[in-house]
Automatic annotation (TrEMBL):
SUPFAM superfamilies: HAD-like. It comes from uncultured prokaryote. This is Phosphoglycolate phosphatase. One of its GO terms (molecular function) is phosphoglycolate phosphatase activity. InterPro entries: HAD-like_hydrolase_sf, HAD-like_sf, HAD_2, HAD_sf, PGP-like_dom2. One of its GO terms (biological process) is DNA repair. Gene3D superfamilies: HAD superfamily/HAD-like, Putative phosphatase, domain 2.
Amino acid sequence: MPAVFFDLDGTLFDTRADLAATVNHTRRDLGLSEWPAEQVIANVGQGARYLLEHSIPEAADDASLTERFMSHYAEHCCETVQPYPNVRRTLDELKDRGWLLGVNTNKPNFAVKAILEKFGLTRYFGAAVVAGGDGIPLKPDAQSIRECAARLRGHRLSSHDWMVGDSWTDMQCAANAGVKGAFCTFGFGQLRDARFTVKINRFEELLRHCHELASW
């Protein structure tokens, strides 16, 4: 059966408030002024280190920067996060139709685990969760989605598989891996000049495309 691999931030969950709050907590901790949330969120999608280097550039060389951010985020990553509308219903329907599901995200693995567990979504993905901190190159490197496929079904990707996400890193990962890309316009990532196969304006629209996508 074909598989669908989901990004997390801006795809399964709206995580903007907690991410921006933690970055600004770290900025204050370093004696710096806060940044507008939108300016912080523009740097989400390429891993924690990229987020920090571009949202706290004044302290990019500070050896304690990542630890400061991670220690606070570990305690607050689930405070305001919410799944996008109809996520659970859509995942249930995909499972019922026989789709295999995985998560391929650049988000720190401890936060991914905490968020999925809080909302009871771990059962949809099992061990097929690849995240930042797993020692695997981050998206857009194709190794991340290949590893996710290996954890999901023990073998390589199929050209019928899909990567669903809201960022150019997701769509470029799909292209690099030879799978299809579904771009989520409801998220907060940046597409840049990346190409996609279909555009999804609401999460549940994946169901409308499901039969067509599986037959390609």
